[in-house]
Amino acid sequence: MSTSPNGTLALALRTKADGPVVLRESVTEGDLFDLYGEVWLAACLRKGHPGVPLDELRVRLVPVLEKGQDSVCLGLIIEGVGPDGATSRHVFPPAAFEDVAWRASQKLIRDGQLKSGDLYYYDVIVDRRPVAELAMRRQAAAPFTVTAKPTPLAYLTLPLAPLAERAEAIGDMGEPWSPVFYTRAALEKAERFARRGALAAHPVETGGVLVGPLCSCPDTGEFFLVVCDAIELLEAESTEYSLTYSGATWTHVQRTLGALQADPTTACYRILGQAHGHNFSPHFGEKKCEDCDQFATCTLTSVFPSVSDRRWTRAVFARQPWAVCHIFGLTARGGHAQALYGIRQGALAERGYYVLPDFAPAGPTPRVGVGGT
Amino acid sequence: MSVGEQAVMAAQPPGAETLSFQAADVTGTHCATVSDVQRALPAGAVAQSLASMWSLPQNVPWSLRNDSTGAFLEDDVPIGQQVGSEAEARLTVTPRTHLG
Fold first, then answer.
1. The domain containing residue B58 runs over which residues?
2. Burial track A20-41 (b if 16+ CB lie within 10 A, e otherwise)
3. Domain-embedded: residue B9
4. What's the pTM?
5. Is residue B2 part of a domain?
6. How many structural domains is chain B composed of?
7. Long-range contacts: A110-116, Cβ < 8 Å, 24+?
8. Domain residue limits, chain A
């Protein structure tokens, strides 16, 4: 699938800004899949080729070396060639490898070279050492037989323009994101689930998963998603600052989704993302800003994607670059705030979305296509 | 990276020492029949191997969850003690991480 630089990508970690490198952490194929996914979205899915699986995308990795450096990178360029032969070129900064750095930092903590909360520093490098160790680790990874079953990507073929014409735009629509639509009912449901935890005597985080179809526009080739429903996270483990899906939570989600998929009218529904509430004050319990009265609008909110949110999204939505994370929170004045986040450059970035009064495609039943991830 | 038939690494002959099950990730992006699994293998090791094979992030721990009961398998306990001999056991590879 990929052609790599002459060497392997790795992170070089230091415990002091000008200190020696204390650990080299390999960037694995798994680490790169989110980035490949973004290229796949741009080169195939949004170009009218949703049937092309991610595995069939041809990518080339081009490290952007610092001037005068043999191995330290300013970033990584990933070029993907779509089925139409066009090349989609994406630049990923070192920040796109934060999770790899975090993984390495945990090793340093276990080794006693770093304490929890300590700062650490990293460079993305082209590691030109032999890769025998990595190869051995991969060979030992599967002591059983795994026969994969095809999991084609189901999507609706549906014109985008009629939806956009009757949709209300929410948030910044300046960036060229793949469109996300919510039905008003689904948005209200998601917010209700997310804010339910705010009603507790000691507020906790609550939420739901967002479900609906993926869609491909036959006129423009654009790829988009429509959130049509939300499934509440029942029996989740909630605290003030965390939300953990229990076994019962996952079971409820999967059985509810399974029932939807068994209905011909909602057979294309899948999990598209999740919503949850940051039902805590952005001041972490302290008073308001001193100059609060001077501002008409409070911009200090508890709405932000945490490190945990990013890690959870990467784990649950691996190879799904369209996934969204909706966070409902509070302003420092106690008002409501919210934002939707999508995956960009390996991180969660705020993005706009559209709200539809309903989602009942006019005319013949939309065609269901299948591709593959 | 490949799909379809995956490489067989140190596979065991079928028999009482091994078991099979159906596996998927939580969004159904990956589905597979997993066979020749040594019953003595810790369930957590099986989960981690599947996650690695599917190129899922290795930053988080992975566990197996039994779809019929909803319960997570205990990572340190042999999978053979937690999954019956029925060939149609369905297990979901699930990340053990949380939103924040």
1. 18-95
2. eebbebbbbebbbbbbbbbbbb
3. no
4. 0.90
5. no
6. 1
7. A113/A15, A113/A22, A113/A23, A114/A15
8. 2-139, 154-370
- The pLDDT profile of chain B, 100 residues, written as one tens digit per residue, is 334 444 444 444 455 789 999 999 999 999 999 999 999 999 999 999 999 999 998 889 999 999 999 999 999 999 999 997 665 799 999 999 999 9
Cβ–Cβ below 8 Å for B28 and A251: no
Distance in Å, alpha carbon of B87 to nearest chain A alpha carbon: 14
Are B36 and A317 within 8 A, CB to CB?
Answer: no
The span from the CA of A261 to the CA of A242, in Å, is 30
Q: Do B97 and A318 touch (CB under 8 A)?
A: no
Question: How far apart are alpha carbons A353 and A170 in whole angstroms?
Answer: 5
Q: Domain of B26: which CATH number?
A: 3.10.20.90
3-state secondary structure (DSSP) of residue B94 = strand
Taking the domain A154-370, which CATH number applies?
3.40.140.10
Cβ contacts below 8 Å, chain A against chain B, sum to 170
Collapsing DSSP to helix, strand or coil, A243 comes out as strand
Interface test with B, best of A1, A145, A239, A303 (most B CBs within 10 A): A145
Given an 8 Å threshold on Cβ–Cβ distance, is B55 in contact with A30?
A: yes
Mutate to test the interface with B, among A144, A246, A272 (most CBs of B within 10 A): A144
Averaged over successive runs of 10 residues, the pLDDT of chain A (373 residues) comes to: 70 95 92 94 96 92 89 95 91 94 95 94 88 50 86 93 96 89 98 97 97 97 98 97 97 96 93 97 72 86 95 95 97 94 95 96 57 54
Closest in B8, B29, B98 to A308, CB measured: B98
* Assigned domain for B11 exists: no
